[in-house]
Design brief:
By secondary structure, the protein is α/β, with parallel strands linked by helices. It has 14 helices and twelve strands. It starts with a strand and ends in a 9-residue tail after the last helix. The relative contact order is 0.13. The protein binds 1,4-dihydronicotinamide adenine dinucleotide (NAI).
């Protein structure tokens, strides 16, 4: 029997590839879903594949009575209410490994942009200004990097940091002895990592346990003049306390690929028509403050976005769906 499969937010080359792969099924493509009425259009589908901006919170899931399977084209799945999906008998898969090196490379792109003032340097030379005032950077060699979360992406970050001859401190609930042996990384407490790192980089999933992992209480422990890199999820950091640390100089700067409530900032105009909580509006305001700060560079949740990584995401998504249809789902997260 053909399956009803919906794909959300696909580019045209992805559509062609997916149409070919799922010939014989009813396949439909939708643009990004923004309001409740958009979710109502998905009622007939039993399989849906979206991206991180396809929110499957309980109120949206409630509209999807026929849904049996969600496969997200991402590693992170904090945009899906996993408990509610389980209650409704909906299985959820992700793409666990598609570009750990890809995100780690972007992490170093942010680090080097800050350490060598690349952004300011390019802006100046575009204006034919070749003066070096204010463009002095710092070496990574001999500096200490604190890697929080040493899973797939964190491991590549450790490998690259070793290439730069940095000292490596690590924090994770699970200790990867390979990183200790091969790269001389040292597992320490979160407090010690914050106190001793020149660059702190986050590579954890976002969930209840990691919400505001860096917060008003422990941001105080951060070594004065260090840098924070976040390519994981905005909600790992309490933005208000983070802004204070950036303003006081406790943090010299930050490189961010993710922001707290970044979904709202992307669709900001809709806030005018929507009932939005004070807390969420405050988060949007805080994001705007961050975006304007001279010592903060922000990329638009783009760390995953290499051609190679996207092809791997699509291959795994196809495999996820094929295996689900055969009754042998893989890469399940619930
Ligand atoms: P992973 O699952 O391989 O590694 C995560 C690590 O965090 C694990 O070693 C785990 O033990 C550790 N961890 C989990 N909870 C913890 C806690 N409470 N305290 C300490 N350690 C904890 O995940 P991976 O592939 O390295 O990805 C990490 C995150 O990066 C993803 O969850 C996702 O949110 C984000 N990401 C961002 C992308 C982007 O484009 N900006 C692309 C891909 C992932």
């Amino acid at each position: 029997m053909p399956n009803n499969i919906a794909f959300i937010s696909c580019e045209s080359w992805e559509k062609e590839y997916l149409k070919n792969k799922f010939k014989g099924n009813r396949v439909k493509f939708f643009e990004q879903l923004t309001c409740e009425a958009d979710y109502a259009k998905l009622q007939q589908f039993d399989i849906i594949s979206g991206f991180i901006n396809t929110s499957f919170q309980a109120k949206n899931l409630a509209k999807l009575k026929n849904l049996k399977y969600i496969t997200t084209r991402s590693t992170g799945f904090d945009h899906i209410d996993i408990k509610q999906a389980k209650k409704m008998g909906i299985k959820v898969s992700n793409v666990p490994l598609y570009g750990a090196n890809t995100v780690a490379e972007h992490t170093f792109a942010l680090i080097l942009t800050l350490s060598r003032k690349i952004y300011e340097s390019i802006e100046r030379t575009k204006k034919s200004d070749f003066l070096l005032d204010g463009l002095r950077g710092f070496d990574l060699k001999g500096k200490t990097i604190g890697v929080i979360g040493t899973g797939s992406i964190g491991e590549h970050v450790v490998r690259m940091a070793d290439g730069f001859q940095m000292n490596i401190l690590m924090y994770d609930v699970f200790k990867n002895t390979r990183l200790v042996k091969k790269y001389k990384g040292k597992y320490v407490t979160l407090t010690k990592l914050l106190k001793e790192s020149d660059i702190i980089t986050l590579h954890l999933p976002y969930n209840k346990a990691t919400h505001h992992l860096l917060n008003a209480k422990n941001i105080k422990n951060i070594k004065s003049g260090s840098y924070l890199i976040n390519t994981a999820r905005g909600g790992l950091v309490e933005t208000k306390a983070f802004i204070k640390a950036l303003t006081s100089g406790q943090l010299a700067g930050a490189g961010l690929d993710v922001l707290e409530e970044e979904g709202l900032i992307k669709e900001e105009i809709q806030l005018l028509d929507r009932q939005t909580s004070r807390e969420k509006l405050s988060a949007v305001l805080q994001d705007h403050i961050l975006l304007k700060m001279d010592n903060v560079i922000v990329t638009p949740h783009n760390a995953f976005n290499s051609g190679e990584a996207l092809q791997r995401i699509l291959n795994t998504t196809v495999e996820n769906i094929e295996r689900f249809i055969k009754g042998k789902p893989i890469n399940l997260v619930n």
